[in-house]
Amino acid sequence: MLLKQLVFVSVSRNCHRKIKLAGSFQRFYCDKKKEVDFSEIPVERIRNFSIIAHVDHGKSTLADRLLEFTGAIKPNSGQNQVLDKLQVERERGITVKAQTASLLYQWNDEQYLLNLIDTPGHVDFSNEVSRSLLACQGVILLVDANDGVQAQTVANFYLAFGNDLVIIPVLNKIDLKNSNPDRVCKQLESLFDINPKEVLKISAKLGIGIEAVLERVITDLPAPSVNRTAPFRALLFDSSYDRYRGVLSMVYLTDGSLKIGDHIESCYSKKQYEVKMLSLLKPQEQQVDKLMAGQIGMVSCNMRSPQEAHIGDTLYLIGQTVEPLHGFTPIRPMVFAGVYPMDQSQHVTLRSAIEKLTLNDSAVTVEIDSSPALGQGWRLGFLGLLHLEVFSQRLQQEYGAEAILTAPSVIYKVKLKPTKQTFKDGTDIVCINNPALWPDTVKIEECFEPMVIGTIITPDKYLGPIMSLCMERRGVQKSAVNIDNERVMLQYDMPLCEIIVDFHDALKSLSSGYASFDYEDNGYTSSNLVKMNILLNGEAIEELSFIVHTSKAQTMGKQMALKLKDMIPRQMVNIAVQATVGGKVLARQDIKAYRKDVTQWLYGGDVTRRKKLLAQQAAGKKKMRMIANISVPRDTFINVLKR
């Protein structure tokens, strides 16, 4: 009934304000355009902010409530995770892509423009968080009142703190039975020196305390530091691809204004474009005629090639001289995998899909690669294993591209022994992300593998098994801090190759799902690495080789030999599957040949006839083995190489 009790107050000649008596929802309409002119809102009443949190702490739910309380969407519409637009996000229940929404909110009889950016929470998508913070002046640090501070909470806090952003601490899920806000407030105070009195307590699911969050955003966050009288300048911090309009660029205007018909230029590519369309996301796309400094909008300018949209680029009007903005520093990929089409006839389709998808995800690096077994393909770099899985799933769901993904690997550095030949750049260290390119052992002086600092937050009753797991993965403990009476924060220096595949799953299994894990790059360290070759009847198969630490070479060799024995089909001759390191055989499995009873048609006679036939068969098999070409089906390579 309250939704029907509305009062219409005349604001201007052609515009009316529609206010709910309860004061929770406020929407604005115009008689003609049904929308308020965003360009008329002064800079002092603009707030740009992001929501950052650990996975499943309620970022998307809080974003839904903010959209409802500002009237951007209808309350109780039955639609959840409005800003999670990708199918993979709804299926997995996580945020993968940062999304923007421009909201209008009435406070103290004045209209405020709130530009909200909902960011992912998983460590593999920290690239999205870093880019989003460039367009913000503050963040909402969301913490689950039940789970408390998690590993990614710590990482996100210091990421925002390092960018000199205002941080608004908010506790979510206070309606849960097991929530303990006082305990979590003490964690925030001990870890981040946050005053418990400044922490807001809300329930995004029930809508409790949402108005207090909006009020803190308006009162605590500063207005963007921009100049609307200066020449136009904007930061390109995100992009997407539309099959009809080409590349759509998300920009944050720092100076001047931009209108349809203006001609702009890119600082990075020096290419020139004509602005065809300007839009705001509310969260649905709404076309506007003009964007002003301080706003976040979307620009369509007939940018057809995905390579032209460089994240961190500065856009300006043609004929003007401006200083490029401080752009985004790309995060270095940490996990690499080969991507090949299921059939070479699908190569062009897959290439087009990868180009368009990398436009939406600038953290992915692409290099052309080829394999005698799998054909032409690419070597892609990702921030983590979940990043790789989501990319593969989006390829299939959004573009219908079926692809083969090989097992993930990391990038190693190898220092070669001095030779007469010198490298062009004057160094003797090479970077290798493909085991097939690993140099001979006699040429290697020293090997280096990437290391990370892993942060684990766990209840203390799981401390023993988790420490054993980290030591098994060659981890070295750096610190252990008691967050409170029940939880401990551990930091380990660990090799990246030991955690990219199944470490997270093993950690969750040991801790019954209560432990959280986050990691950050920690450079390279010297390590005893070797290349393990797989031989079939003495012939090395480069596609099956991999890099392994010497302490685990024996175990890995046995596992691979057993796996190949089960997968490679039997032939007419015996097949010896061997795992070798530097010419030394560490494991061997034999695949028996098919047998044919050449004496089955004999019905009698002397035994010498039987011996003669068996001798002929033995000689034929020996000759066949010398000239036989072991045929390994493509499906076998796919099953062995894929994740």
TrEMBL record:
Ranges for domain Tr-type G: 44-225
Catalysed transformations (reactions): GTP + H2O = GDP + phosphate + H(+)
Pfam families: EFG_C, GTP_EFTU, LepA_C
Molecular function, one GO term: ribosome binding
Bilayer topology term: Peripheral membrane protein
Keywords for the protein's UniProt record, in alphabetical order: GTP-binding, Hydrolase, Membrane, Mitochondrion, Mitochondrion inner membrane, Nucleotide-binding, Protein biosynthesis
Annotated Gene Ontology cellular component terms: mitochondrial inner membrane; mitochondrial matrix
One biological process term in Gene Ontology: translation
This enzyme's EC code(s): 3.6.5.n1
SUPFAM superfamilies: EF-G C-terminal domain-like, P-loop containing nucleoside triphosphate hydrolases
Enzyme class: hydrolase
Domain of life: Eukaryota
Localization, UniProt: Mitochondrion inner membrane
Keyword Amino-acid biosynthesis listed: no
InterPro entries to which the protein is assigned, alphabetical: EF-4, EFG_III/V, EFG_V-like, G_TR_CS, LepA_C_sf, LepA_CTD, LepA_IV, P-loop_NTPase
Binding site for GTP: 53-60, 118-122, 172-175
Keyword Cell inner membrane part of the UniProt annotation: no
Family: Belongs to the GTP-binding elongation factor family. LepA subfamily.
HAMAP family: LepA
Function: Promotes mitochondrial protein synthesis. May act as a fidelity factor of the translation reaction, by catalyzing a one-codon backward translocation of tRNAs on improperly translocated ribosomes. Binds to mitochondrial ribosomes in a GTP-dependent manner.
Protein name per its UniProtKB record: Translation factor GUF1 homolog, mitochondrial
Organism listed in the record: Hypothenemus hampei (Coffee berry borer)
